[in-house]
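Lab channel / #folding
Pinned by the channel admin:
"Please post every new chain as: sequence first, then the structure tokens as a reply. Keep commentary short and put observations after the output so the thread stays searchable."

First post following the new format, from NK:
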Amino acid sequence: MKKLLIILAVFLLIGCSFNDTEDYTYNGYSFVPVQDFWGVTINTIQGETNIIFHHHPSELELYEFDENTLNYFNNVHRNEGDFLIGISEELSTSGVVALAGVEVSKVTGKVLGMETKSGFTTEDFGTRVVNCDNASTTKFVLVFKLGEENSIITNYYCSIITANETNNLIELADLFVYKILGIM
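Reply from TO:
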């Protein structure tokens, strides 16, 4: 787990050069395998940015995604609003939810320039409380929780990623990021 975080941090901070000759193009974006991950270069207002993902977009097509999510997210982004990540109580000891949060926050914070903060969905942990009550035209909230089905449900300015097992949180986080970047 520590090795994974170090690899992600290195690629995020210094970027990486993608030199694979295989064609893993998806929706006009060229993906390159980087060890057990997928790298893609996107154009941003800061220039070209390299991003590492756990999953290729083609692996995530089976999941449904409410396209209204993009309208709400883009509205907050245009208003230079904040991005808040809430972690439900049952995931408080999960390292996987930390990785899923990093998948999202590396893009919302570093690439899109949004103030990105996290907390737990209840007051039980003595930290910032982040839940759908925080959502507004200047605050987009993303909550991670466990449930019966894998889904991303959006209610106005709050999206809830629900996974039926913790390992699916990263898939759904990648899907969310691919969607907000317009890759999928």
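NK: The longest helix spans residues 95-111.
TO: also worth noting, The CA atoms of residues 109 and 116 lie 6 Å apart.
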